Amino acid sequence: MIPGSFDYHAPTSLDDALALLTEHGGDAKILAGGHSLIPAMRFRLAVPEVLVDIGRIPDLEYIREEDGHLAVGGMTREVALEDSDLVNAKYPLLADTARVIADPLVRNLATVGGNLAHADPANDHPATMLAYGASVVARGPNGSRTIAIDDFFVDLFESALESNEILTEIRIPTPPAHGGGAYLKMERKVGDYAVSAVAVQLVLDGGTVSSARIGLTNVNPVPMRAKNAEAELVGKAATDDVLEAAGRAAAGECDPSGDLRGSAEYKRDVTRILTKRAIRKAVERAKGGN
Amino acid sequence: MTHLDDRTEPHSPLPEGASAQVATTDEIRIRTPEKVCGMGHPMKRKEDPRFIQGKGRYVDDVKLPGMLYMDIVRSPYAHAKIKKIDASAALAMDGVLAVITGEDLKAAGDLHWMPTLMSDTQMVLPIEKVAYYAQEICAVVATERYIAADAIEKVVVDYEPLEAVVDPHLALEDKVIVRDDKEKKTNHIWHWEAGDKAATDRVFAEAAHVIEQTMHIPRIHVSSIETCGMVANYSKVTEQMQIYMTSQAPHAHRTVFALVSGLPEQKIQIISPDIGGGFGGKVPVYPGYVCCAVASLVTGKPVKWIEDRSENLQADSFARDYHITAEMAADANGKITGLRVKTLADCGAADAAANPSKFPAGLYSICTGSYDMKAAHIAVDGVYTNKPPGGVAYRCSFRVTEAVHMIERMTDIMAHDLGEDPADFRLKNFIRPDQFPYKSPTGWEYDSGNYKAALDEAMKLIDYRALREEQAAKRERGELMGIGISSFTEVVGAGPSRDFDILGIKMFDSAEIRIHPTGKAIARFGTKSQGQGHETTYAQIVAEELGLPAADVQVEEGDTDTAPYGLGTYASRSTPTAGAAGAMAARKIKAKAKKIAAHLLEVGEEDLEWNVDKFQVKGSPDQAKTIQEIAFAAYTNHPQGMEAGLEATDYYDPPNLTFPFGSYICVVDIDSGTGEVHVRRFVAVDDCGNIINPLIVEGQIHGGLTQGLAPALFEEIVYDENGQNLTGTLADYLVPTAVESPKWETGRTITPSPHHPLGAKGVGESPTVGAPPAIVNAVVDAMWHLGVRHVEIPMTPQRIWAQLREHGVTD
Amino acid sequence: MSRHTIKLTVNGEAVEKEVESRLLLVHFVREVLDLTGTHIGCDTTSCGACTVLLDGRAVKSCTVFAAQADGRSVETIEALAADGTLHPLQEGFWEKHGLQCGYCTPGMILSAKHLLEKNPDPTEEEIRWGISGNLCRCTGYNKIVEAIRYAADKQRESTEEVSA
């Protein structure tokens, strides 16, 4: 399995990269970690004429807190999230997610930005970023713009990024006190995409869930928020009945397709169960547990 | 003629100290000091230094001057007429030298078809139609690997899609004919029966309890991490064909190549270098090999062909695909009395199982397993479908996996139905030690066994009774925990030549040992290791017999120009056959050594006794000659009238198969929400007779267990209704990682084979055969109280979930 | 189709070659540099037979273009015993029978090397997760885990000796 031919460019500045993207338009693809793109090229499912490798542009790999959010550079490798004390201490939903993406070797190269920009509903970060209410910074020829994650996923494999824009940063709001999150993924084996996975980020006010966002992985043509499930949860104590109602809502609002990972009916039920379990875990964490 | 042959003895002499009675002990017998490292020593493997330093040499590592590369165009349809193949655009590319089609092969002497090991025929490249998805259409030869990959994209094939038949039950209706090249327009290939039908029917008529269960043992794929490949190097000048090939059976392949191509056999050299896992997948001759050899013949240059993973998964030999309906009968005391089995064997587009026996369903009739019963009858029908051919390639001795799965499931269902503990039920029904050699109702003679001892050991290691108490407590709380047992009997070591051959060549195997003047040795064998550690195990056999340090014995296999003719490594046959040949050849050498020692010590042979590594004078052990001294004398001071040198060859035709066995116990916890199965513990007690290298044996067992876990829970080759393979990558075909694979716990009993020269049996496949039903039995055991009787493999979470929901369990 | 001159360090030695843009790093290592200890087992970034260290991190070299490695450092299995002494991992795999056919072994060893650099004292669970990007079809993994544990102990012993 050998990729088709292409012209390769490795610009060392964002401006050069953007100029190349503008010059080649739809014929060019951005090469970040390459772990979605290169396999697709080996099967010749993707045959770009031009690759713009953004791996040599400085200052796109970082994880830092600023202005009430966690800023993650677009080229940040998944392994950096796993290894980050900051992420592990304050962003457990993100830490959960990073640990179950593909396998450790893949995570050494695969990037957070690539995982999002590919807009693959099977990828794990979309649900997590939806649950966090993150935003995405895109740099284009005319400067940067910020895209709310709720507006980012347009269609299957289609994001709000223009073909001459580069995802440079992801901003995750720092959870408040009594905030908690969790990502639960059911996969058939390590390295597999999710049968279903659920990302929950919530805030507790006393015994009540005062706000919650829930994202779902691989059970919808487009990465989605489970808004009905959120509605079942917000303003209530996370009792078994509430959890069940939220789980049922999530199962009802997603739209999985049947495949080797299971029938649509099965995936809905797994979504129901994982939603309950993820909420339970997020609540525990919000209360100060792990 | 002084070349000694001890064939005057029956060809199954017991080693000194071995007992003909079945004696079970878990102690490994060690008779040589560590310096010699004979049988029983956990010797570190001699082959490892090259592998751990990246210096193994696999087929894709072979690089010859001027080497070309071949790639293959494959069919996107499972069944289609070929109207036209237009290779002009590919041929016009820079660097493309040739495109080989079925027509070309036909013109070259009807090479477009080849024989299979089951007396069927198989297309090499099609002319009229394709019969399975990813079937080879034509081969492109280019100067570079990347150019060949580009060129196959440029070949335009005009297909007329035909309806495909994927389900063997539908295939029997003969609405779609897979093989219209045959005179008889039917998909039914053969019908085969074993056992006594009338006696079995009588037993069932008289039975107090009868159970029936259908089960499907689905298609799986070995997926060795190295795919298949070849470098063919034909010289138009010398007319010699040198082939590097991922071959588990290089000699047999050489003969097949000679017969098919017409090249003289002495002009063909097949070298099977290091092999990155075989498991049966490198026994068949695939069309790609033939095309590669033809490409070299045509161009007169070396040509390399290496499959990619998708080609490997989509077109190479599969295993299993048996659709089974089984009935078991028991009397009022809960004693199994009979077994009646009907089976549909989905063979794909050709009957091409690598099953070199005279039985179409291989050793499937071993299916009465470890249980003594009055009668059994099995009937199997082979069927063509629009799927790739194959049949046994997954670490399995010719269909014994299907047999064991069935009998162990049936036994468990019967025990549960009768309300008996599955362990107690097995203990009650086992063939007793005093019944060996045991004649089974389907005609097999089991060599030795002590099934109770193995199950007792497994129950002790896992604390079976305590687990049952834990299970009862958990069940009260609604938690799903299951305990499953499999007490399997394997049948390996093909084989007695009366029953086993490849295209008429009997399934013996061979060893040739030469002792050099300095007391070092080279030993060559007709088998071919693919990771089994032959370089170490065989050296230890020679060390055991001759007292030469195993470190001084260089073992070679896989080069047909140098190794003695053998049938290769698969079906756990290497130790039973070639290992035995090694021992027998060593004994011939020892007999000659004794004569030389007598000559050197100036005593009669009858005055000498063997002591580890020397012949000594009885009653006067100071008077002795070591094997090294004798070796030197064999070249410098041998007796008048005796040939110089110290070497021997043996072709060993085993008197019977060997019958390893074991008892496995598996503990699972089931997630009642998602249906996921967690294997919490797995204890495997294996009995493979006398052990040559316990380290290697344990490694074989661990590996086999993971390959038993895999089909039980993860792996299946899945086709859609059009015959498209949906599991054509390792992203879809789920080979377990270290995370899914549990920490295996092992134990052993030792019941020597009475007919093997070393008392050894095979071991490589036992765990693959024994593990799946233990896991299924555990899963069903966890849910039996809910009303679940059976779960098909692979037991995917969805399958478990469906059963749970059907029986009212949810989360 | 562009061609590029790449300069990188492979097993400590400077290498300069002209490559086609689409040349995969695994083919660069195997075919251009003849370092055939790095193997190929799949097309989907699944098996890890092609694992090398890229700037010290274990990566699947089938999913990296050689051009991407320009200016970086690549370490393959051939580097581990270059001075004639087996690396503790190589020793562990030999001692503990951590390999059978040997095909996955170089990748497995390099994955383990990176794992132990990050976590010198891993639990069995951490080892299993750490090598979960590498498939082995022969060993059932038990003895690979033991081999890596052996190396961890050996490396920690020698570190303690140095610091003592």
3D architecture notes:
The complex is a heterotrimer of chains A (290), B (811) and C (164). By secondary structure, chain A is α+β, with helices and mostly antiparallel strands. Chain A has three domains: 46 residues, Uridine Diphospho-n-acetylenolpyruvylglucosamine Reductase, domain 2, CATH 3.30.43.10; 111 residues, Uridine Diphospho-n-acetylenolpyruvylglucosamine Reductase, domain 3, CATH 3.30.465.10; 107 residues, CO dehydrogenase flavoprotein, C-terminal domain (Enolase-like, domain 1, 2-Layer Sandwich), CATH 3.30.390. Chain B has 811 residues and is α+β, with helices and mostly antiparallel strands. Helices cover 27% and strands 23% of the residues of chain B. Chain B has 19 helices and 32 strands. In chain B, α10 runs parallel beside α18 and α17 crosses α18. Chains in contact: A-B, A-C, B-C. The interface between B and C is large, with 61 and 59 residues.
Strand order of the largest sheet of chain B: 3-7-1-14-11-12-13
Major β-sheet of chain B, in short? 7 strands, mixed
Instruction: Tell me how many strands of chain B there are.
Output: 32
Q: State the separation between the terminal residues of chain A, measured CA to CA.
A: 44 Å
User: Given the C-alpha coordinates, what overall shape of chain A results?
Assistant: globular
* Overall number of structural domains of chain A: 3
Give the strand tally of chain A. 14
Uncertain residue segments of chain B: 1-20
Overall average pLDDT of chain A: 97
CATH structural class of the largest domain in chain B: Alpha Beta
CATH topology of the largest domain in chain A: Uridine Diphospho-n-acetylenolpyruvylglucosamine Reductase, domain 3
CATH homologous superfamily name of the largest domain in chain B?
Answer: Aldehyde oxidase/xanthine dehydrogenase, molybdopterin binding domain
**CATH class membership of the largest domain in chain A:** Alpha Beta
Number of helices of chain B: 19
